[in-house]
Design a protein that fits this description.
Elements: H1 2-18, H2 20-28, E1 37-38, E2 54-59, E3 72-81, E4 88-96, E5 118-122, E6 131-133, E7 135-137, E8 147-155, E9 160-168, E10 173-184, E11 190-199, E12 208-215, E13 218-223, H3 233-245, E14 251-258, E15 270-280, E16 283-288, E17 294-299, E18 304-310, E19 317-324, E20 328-334, E21 356-361, H4 364-371, E22 385-392, H5 420-424, E23 446-454, E24 474-477, E25 483-488, E26 496-502
Parallel strand pairs: 7-11
Antiparallel strand pairs: 1-23, 2-26, 3-4, 4-5, 5-6, 8-9, 9-10, 10-11, 12-13, 13-14, 14-15, 16-17, 17-18, 18-19, 20-21, 21-22, 22-23, 24-25, 25-26
Length: about 500
């Protein structure tokens, strides 16, 4: 009896010291999330008005669409010029694949590659947004189309938009290039994508996932696994499973350099590929800061975002920082310049002038169950969603703000921000489940704020319905700065979650 107690005590001590208990808690015990929570304005930016100022919708396909809007992996901004000189307007492109449950090179299965995926477009500023299929023109009829990561680049003096699309075909993975053309904005968006070329290379070994464009002749490309399900025999699937569950650091990020610029007189091809970051566990989404000096890389199984310094000459990467998140990070995006988080407007030389947005999966096992065709709850939980903004803390100099009525023309300085430990429990205080309650360790130079979280369960209407399996969060700001919106695709969800909030402070 005494021996049993000693063995149990020893095992408990080992689990505690090794961190295995924390790992089990973080990965097996699901977080207690609400059915649906959103907050696009920080509490420090004034109250969000009521009386229709907050709206949640499940975006569906437009009436008469030949395909359903479902199973979306990535989303990205497509900026167009407004009329009447009001700056840019942002449309949202979506990368979706209705056949994902029959063809998923990341999670399986690989049974039927024939049904094609689709690109969709929507206008988040429309009164009631709907999604429209982007008509592909000139794409080879014999090619498969299973889109994952997408990103848009403006090219040339006339700023022609080109979308890069990671495509997981049956025999190889490629990167497809299309030129976008806006046909009309209302009553619904109509757009075409004219095929330009297919980029292929032996280094595209079946695991390309996400793209961050550096220039018309170069882009970063993440590879989520070394061992893929495309390999021959059961050993390939076993190695892929072990690499995923064991969080083995075997994935990478490559820099792909082209022979000529996109839309130049010579059709581009892959000229050179080199690995710029390795030893990453499940390298997933990537996003480049606005000044192109920092690359953010999602490590899904490690529940973190890694920040790399980008060399301005050869684009070499050096690891700078790791940001812990409370979920398995999927894709990353970049918030517009107008999206300013409190205490983030003064940046020092070590931070990019950018706010990143990360989306992912708080409960990986329930997501995996859905991928295997099990639609029931996993240990009482549905696949859930969590989207956060990641912004740098203030620089060393306090910002000049009016904290009280001026006295004799004096402008007062705001007090310096409190230490990181105090900020941790304050910056996400409005969330139903604040990030700091599920994040291990300190994010001393970056702060997290919840934009959306959901347990995935259904309620009574759009504002009460849950939405699970968030893959990406794309945010935007209206031209007058008073309205913010968020678009959230779900990996195996039907439709797309859309949230719009208006701040009435000052009215």
């Amino acid at each position: 009896m005494l021996l049993n107690h000693l063995l149990q005590a020893g095992l408990a001590f080992f689990i505690y010291r090794s961190g295995l208990g924390i790992w089990i808690y973080d990965h097996v015990v699901p977080p207690d999330l609400p059915t649906s929570y959103s907050s696009l304005f920080s509490q420090n930016q004034g109250h969000v008005g009521h009386q229709g100022a907050s709206k949640q919708l499940l975006i569906q396909e437009e009436a008469g669409a030949a395909l359903p809007l479902k199973f979306c992996e990535d989303a990205t901004e497509w900026d167009i010029q407004r009329s009447q000189g009001q700056g840019k307007k942002t449309l949202v492109l979506l990368s979706c694949d209705p056949g994902r449950k029959e063809w998923n090179t990341v999670m399986g299965p690989l049974t039927d590659p024939n049904p094609r995926g689709v690109l969709w477009v929507m206008d988040p500023e429309a009164e009631t947004p709907v999604a429209s299929v982007v008509k592909m023109e000139g794409f080879p009829s014999k090619s498969d189309f299973h889109p994952l990561g997408i990103e848009v680049l403006r090219v040339g003096s006339d700023q022609r938009p080109v979308v890069y699309v990671v495509n997981h075909q049956r025999n190889e993975s490629t990167v497809e290039l299309f030129e976008l053309n806006l046909v009309q904005l209302s009553p619904s968006v109509e757009a075409t994508a004219t095929y330009l070329t297919t980029l292929s290379d032996p280094s595209f070994t079946g695991a390309p996932n996400s793209i961050a464009i550096v220039s018309p002749v170069a882009f970063f490309l993440s590879h989520d696994h070394r061992h893929t399900r495309r390999g021959a025999g059961p050993l390939a699937k076993l190695l892929n499973f072990v690499e995923t569950i064991g969080a083995l650091p075997l994935s990478r990020v490559d820099l792909v350099e082209l022979s000529s610029a996109v839309l130049s007189s010579t059709k581009p091809r892959v000229n050179h590929v080199r690995t710029v970051a390795s030893r990453i566990s499940f390298a997933n989404g990537v996003a480049l800061s606005r000044d192109k000096r920092t690359l953010a890389v999602a490590s899904s199984t490690r529940k973190e975002v890694r920040l790399f310094n980008v060399d301005g000459i050869n684009h070499a990467l050096s690891l700078k920082e790791r940001i812990k998140l409370p979920f398995h990070v999927d894709n990353l995006s970049l918030a517009p310049e107008e999206w300013i988080e409190p205490n983030s407007t003064s940046l020092d030389a070590h931070h990019p002038t950018s706010t990143f947005v990360a989306a992912g999966h708080p409960n990986f096992f329930s997501l995996a169950a859905v991928a295997r065709g099990k639609e029931t709850e996993f240990f009482g939980t549905m696949p859930s969603s969590w989207v956060v903004s990641i912004s740098p803390r203030s620089g060393p100099a306090p910002a000049k703000v009016q904290t009280e009525p001026p006295s004799q023309g004096q402008l007062h300085f705001a007090p310096p921000p409190p230490p990181a430990k105090e900020l941790r429990t304050d910056e996400d205080r409005g969330a139903a489940l604040p990030t700091y309650k599920r994040v291990r360790g300190e994010n001393k130079t970056w702060k997290l704020r919840t934009l959306f979280q959901s347990n995935g369960k259904q309620g009574g209407n759009d504002s009460e319905n849950g939405f699970g399996m968030s893959t990406t969060g794309v945010v935007g700001v209206s031209w007058d700065g008073r309205t913010r919106w968020l678009v959230v695709p779900g990996l195996y969800e039907t439709g797309v979650k859309f949230i719009r909030e208006t701040n009435y402070i000052g009215d």
